[in-house]
Batch of 2 targets.
Target 1
Amino acid sequence: MSSKQQVLALLEQFKGSHISGEEIARQLQITRAAVWRAIHDLRLSGHAIEASTKIGYRLSESSDVLSEQGIRSAFTDKRYLELPLHFHESIGSTNGEAKRLALEGAPHGTVVVAGRQTEGRGRNGKSFFSPSDSGLYVSVLLRPELDTAMALRVTSGVAVAVCRAIERMCDRRAGIKWVNDILIDSLKVCGILTEGISGFETGRIESLVVGIGVNHTVPPEGFPQELQGIAGALFVDTAPPEASRNRLAASIVEELLAVVDHMGQVDFMEEYRRRSVVVGQRVRVVQGAVAYEAEATGIADDGALVVRLADGSVQSLRSGEISLRPILGSSW
């Protein structure tokens, strides 16, 4: 770890309080000049660090620059302090990087975090709007003892975990639109993409990469025209210090791994059903080139969406896309 990273980690530990340059140098066993250079570089990176000749340095509680040190300091469960955590200010895709690490043998729980994606992806190869400074992009490598049929349940469990993490940060109710969208006030604030690598002979999942993209605040330039009325954010403007992106990232990882550790159970599916904004609604289902209308009647324990068609028949959907938008020219 560089001197800059060490100093930031210590400032994060004392966030909101002062610590003298002398004490920083003593604890890190570096020179006062090295401390000054680290502070200078951290300020250039956007960290809000105050300085006083009498009482030392203070990292402002309102500082919300994403960093590995900031995320680690925000963990409330100390079991996660030593998780392999890879931070990037900007990256093509956090899922792509997590899959690369998986092929290199990275362990269960490896985390990749970025403040910006240049090649963010959603389901079915769609691009995912990933601006800097206002978004948070987290991918977690999982190596669960599950067969491929359980992959949909993992996505359902992650959706519940993300809702819990969001509600730890803000006093807003988060709902789930099957299968991987998190909504607040009918606007999408988060998308989840689960990608798996399975053994051909065993049919079991060797690894899963779960990608989570959250709109933390509204981008300064606003959302693109095509996302107007569709995308939203946890906070319209600046988030309070207790809801920084570092703390949100730590909360997501903690909640996600806690759910995954009990994936063999189905208790969380009851919460998934309670949070569903789909059950009881008319939906438009799109599966490849086929599209049709149906009524969403429930969520199965494996995460499948149960729908009733116009002819009264019932189907369980394990793939496809649905829309809750009004359907013109309906003959339902």
Target 2
Amino acid sequence: MAAIDRGDLPADLRIVLRRHPTDNPGRWDRFEGVAAVAFDDPGAVGAQAVRPGQVDLGRDQIVGLCSSLAHTDVHVSVSSTMTLDGAFFDKPQLGPAYDRRGQARHRRRARDLYAREHFLPIVASGGLELSASPEELVGQVRSGLARPERLQAERRTMLEALCTATDGRAIERVADEVGRFVQEHATA
């Protein structure tokens, strides 16, 4: 919000803050009533037993998530495979890799989030810009707003490297395979 107040980002910029469904929603209460922030709460995952970070989203939650990504201009996420989802919508992908308030080990942990094995190919694609400071992140948001096509080829490379199909027809292929399986193994 400070960057908006200083004029470093457009005054009409709106931030959609979407918490992870297993996150503590109270952590984000400080943004309630802030005009620049719209809070998109996906809701709890229910009473089911889930491990930290594991989620089984309902259809309405997935639709809401896709809608928020489709209508965003720039997608900022913290070491999340949501980067792939944002890249599907061809939005600039930004990853804050800093902790300006923490001690040295916190700063290292913030950077190391992007060095986890499953995330390395996302970073290596070049389709995600990491920022080492709030100022760098603000500059990347400005750049993403002004030139959203920048790093478009790298986002495509990211998807091609990590997703077996990027044509939006995966569910049709799964349904076709299930149908074939049923026909081949049907008992008369």
